[in-house]
Write a structure and sequence with these properties.
Elements: E1 8-12, H1 16-28, E2 33-37, H2 46-53, E3 59-61, E4 72-75, H3 79-89, E5 98-101, H4 107-115, E6 122-127, E7 148-153, H5 159-171, E8 175-178, H6 181-208, H7 214-218, H8 221-227, H9 234-243, H10 245-268, H11 271-287, E9 300-305, H12 312-322, E10 327-332, E11 343-347, H13 350-362, E12 366-368
Parallel strand pairs: 1-2, 1-4, 2-3, 4-5, 5-6, 7-8
Antiparallel strand pairs: 6-7, 9-11, 9-12, 10-11
Length: 371
């Protein structure tokens, strides 16, 4: 059984991630039964009503009892809310139901599943795609194409359930990666959670010292690039920090040590240590393929949504070549959390990037430019 079969799938929380999963399932099999929970109980949820109108959802309910016989239940709310819903589902769901989440912290919710007797039902999930735009209106059936999807099976989950869920993830066109909850939480603390804390802290540092708004007025380039993720949901990031505290604090401590080291290098005017620090970071950053090579000057890049089909990249390359545009670097983004676009394209100068964007718009590609 996989996403191409008739399935009964429930969503608790239905924004960008849940909506995109639902749209992809609906594309694969129009007859699947897709149910969403309206937590407002007494009033209609406009996002859910919109999904019903588009026939993305089959039904909306205000009762969790309706989730009893689902094949899969997706928990797509903030991390702490997901744990609350897990508690409510404990006495409701069938033993055959897979409960999964899409949050970026796994330790607490995996422990909660075990304490609630759901360790044979729960498979942690973390699709590494999405952006700071969180609503259903931004959902896309192709959001997960060629994106990593972390899978953390519960300790008592059967091989049959695990294999089924991995097959389901592949049908979303994602790249499943199986990790333990400890591995996952350490990795995302280092590459996602701590960077967000740093970005938010940097913005607040500028805010507190920008009494006449001159810094904000002149902010561009590097400042906007490094702080873009600070525009994400405050509630979500509060939840993440509270539930992945141990890993985040450990890597924040390491970051502080590194900042203190560079601070002292600057105070001491240590030329050799400074050039070594910047060189090491540049070399490592350049080696991260999904990030692309970062030259010493401005990077002229654009991000494009394309479907994963034979010839898609060749079509892009042909369009540019026939218009006299040389490609400097091109690649698929597999980790697209807080990133728009599937294909990253880099050219050599500003006129080329402007011309490329015009061409892509003319041929109806969805184009994202970094602010």
């Amino acid at each position: 059984m996989n996403a191409k079969k008739d399935l009964k799938i429930g969503f608790i929380g239905f924004g960008l991630i849940g909506g995109s999963i639902a749209k992809r399932i609906r594309e694969l099999n129009p007859d699947s039964y897709l149910l969403a929970y309206n937590y407002r109980i007494t009033t209609k949820n406009p996002h859910l009503e919109h999904a019903l109108e588009e026939k993305c959802l089959s039904h909306v309910t205000t009762s969790l009892e309706d989730f009893a016989q689902m094949d899969i239940i997706f928990l797509c709310s903030p991390v702490l809310k997901n744990i609350e819903y897990l508690k409510k589902l404990a006495g409701i769901v069938s033993r055959n139901t897979i409960i999964t989440d899409v949050g970026s912290v796994k330790g607490d919710i995996c422990k909660a599943a075990e304490s609630l007797g759901l360790s044979s039902n729960f498979i942690g999930g973390h699709p590494m795609a999405g952006s700071e735009k969180t609503s259903y209106e931004n959902a896309s059936a192709h959001l997960f194409e060629n994106a990593y999807y972390i899978v953390i099976p519960g300790k008592d989950v059967s091989k049959e359930k695990t294999d089924f869920f991995l097959s389901f993830v592949k049908d979303l066109d994602s790249l499943p990666v199986v990790l333990t909850r400890e591995e996952h939480d350490d990795i995302v603390a280092a590459i996602s959670h701590v960077p967000h804390v740093i970005a938010s802290s940097l913005v607040n540092m500028v805010r507190k010292n920008d009494s006449e708004n001159k810094m904000g007025m002149l902010a561009a380039g590097g400042f906007k690039d490094i702080t873009r993720i600070a525009s994400s949901s405050p509630e979500m990031w509060q939840n993440i920090c509270l539930t992945n505290k141990e890993s985040i604090c450990r890597f924040l401590k390491l970051y502080k040590e590194n900042i203190d080291e560079m601070y002292q290098q600057i105070v001491d005017g240590d030329e050799n240590a400074l050039i070594e620090s910047f060189r090491n970071s540049k070399d490592y950053r350049d080696s991260i393929l999904d990030g692309g090579a970062m030259g010493p000057n401005r990077v002229f890049e654009v991000y494009i949504d394309i479907q994963d089909e034979p010839g898609a990249i060749a079509t892009i390359a042909t369009l540019l070549a026939t218009n006299g545009i040389s490609i400097k670097n091109i690649g698929i983004l597999h980790n697209r959390e807080y990133e728009d676009g599937v294909l990253r394209l880099e050219v050599y100068d500003q006129p080329s990037i402007e011309k490329a964007i015009t061409i892509f718009h003319k041929h109806h590609y969805t184009v994202f430019e970094r602010n």
